[in-house]
Amino acid sequence: MSKLIFSTLSFLIISITFCSAKNAPYYNVKDYGAKGDGKTLDNGSINKAIDAAAKNGGGTVYLPAGTYLSGSIHIKSNINLFLDAGCILLGAPQNMGAYDAEEDIVGKQYQDGGHSYFHNSLIWGENLKNVSITGYGMINGGGLSRETRGANDGKIGKASKSIALKLCSNVVIKDITIFHGGHFAILVTGCNMVKLDNLIIDTNRDGIDIDCCTNTVVSNCMVNAPNDDAICPKSSYALGRKQLTENLTITNCQVSGYKEGTLIDGTLVPPIGRANGRIKFGTESNGGFRNVTVSNCTFKYCFGLALEEVDGGIMENITITNLSMTNIFNYPIYITLGERLRDPDTNSVAVGKNIIISNIVATMVDSLSGIHITGTPTHFLEDIQISDVRFTSGGGGAKKLDNVDFAELGKGYPEVYKLKSATPAYGVFARHVKNLQLNNINVDYKKEDKRPAIYCADINGLEINHFKAKVSEGIAAGVFKQIKDFKTYNSPVLNDVTENKIQ
Q1: Which of 360, 493, 370 is CA-nearest to residue 429?
Q2: Which of 169, 253, 442, 473 could covalently link to 390 via disulfide, CB atoms 3.0 to 4.6 Å apart?
């Protein structure tokens, strides 16, 4: 009897599922002329299917298995563009003239050209609601360019983005794979309610750029970007106004800098030299970043975490926890203010405060810099707390670096390697900070490093608890200059540091 009931229920479930699918708004691009043969331009047919769905109030535009050579696709409101398993949406070569021209932009630009233009993309949409791109198929950028025009250079750009959405609400991009995505694999600007989930991106420039967006979740994504940043929140002037990127969650993601294509094929070939591939906030940062969490992410063969506020915006209420890093270039943690001020308001002042970073493990770290925390001489970072960090530096630093007059970032591009020298401490370098707490920090090196473990200068309120470090014989564990209100606890390696020894 129980078997009969189970069989009957199973039949009913299958029947209901079939009927629901049959009656759902569903538009197969092949019914609108798409060939999927990898040779015929199919974006015209795909756009016809989208138009038909939009005319009827929306629905799923379905791309079955096949290779769809394509130029610009115009996504619309209430459309789910569904790439089925075995589907490859292939970006057409530039010389086929299949992409839309860049839109006209009025007024001076204060961001890279890639952030100014959206229509020159494989898939783009503007001022839309309820947009989704889903399925287990692949977008192969193919002919998309990894280059774009720079700010104010006047050059004509090329199609350079796989997906570009501007001023859209309720956006879902889920389950797809993007290979060789161009300058941006995904660019969302001025969007609200954005969910990016379970994506695999293996690309030649930026993976995911979240610009001037509110209420965004990036989860369960694997992003490999050896030549640029993997996950990159920004806050540019692309909307013609300052707008914060806020209420942002990045969780359960993996970022890396393997050779392009080797994440997807599983060979995971390390880069030759340094690779970006990181999570970076900035550099475009007119509005800034507020109410942000980053958690449970891994970094491999790439730069570490970067928080860069250099264009006069606000960077505040940031919590970051549970990061695991290995084979890290340049630094594991970098927090900086700068004075680039690429902003129409010449009186802008960068602000960085209320930042908590905890539970970080990093091994095989480049000797260029360790934990790097820097404000500016006139505008301090405020209320910074770094806790429960363990990392191992490559080491090899020279003793002379502990007395170097380490350069200020000033108006320069905010990267440590631009400062022309390794930092004067291999573990922690902090300068121009108000209220800095360092709790349970353990730093080590593989090759002997003759720099101090920690170097702090111009700090107003410094508290260090449970600081452990390997220190070369004859080298001071710490150098402290211009420190006010200095407290240390449970840190024997710093026992020789007293108020009268602070320089």
Answers
A1: 370
A2: 442
**Which residue type does 40 have?**
T
Classify domain 26-426+433-453 by CATH number: 2.160.20.10
Token pair belonging to 52:
């038909």
Q: Is 215 left (phi over 0), alpha (psi -120 to 50) or beta?
A: left
Inter-residue contact 140 to 90 (CB < 8 Å): yes
Structure tokens at 278: 């990181």
Q: Report the distance separating Cα 423 and Cα 372, nearest Å.
A: 8
Instruction: Convert 361-380 into a string of H (helix), E (strand) and C (coil).
Output: EEEEECCCCCEEEECCCCCC
Domain definitions of the chain by residue range: 26-426+433-453
Instruction: Return d(Cα 409, Cα 51) in angstroms, integer.
Output: 50
Q: Which band of pLDDT confidence, cut at 50, 70 and 90, is reported for residue 111?
A: confident
**Segment (H or E) for 8:** helix 2-23
- pLDDT, tens digit (0-9, with 9 covering 90-100), for 144-203: 998 765 444 445 568 899 999 999 999 999 999 999 999 999 999 999 999 999 999 999
**Omega before 336 cis (within 30°)?**
no
- Within 10 angstroms of residue 332's Cβ, the number of other Cβ atoms is 27
Structure tokens at 454: 């920690």
Exposure of 385 by Cβ count < 10 A (0-12 exposed, 13-18 middle, 19+ buried)? middle
pLDDT digits (tens, 9 = 90+) for 33-63: 999 999 999 999 999 999 999 999 999 999 9
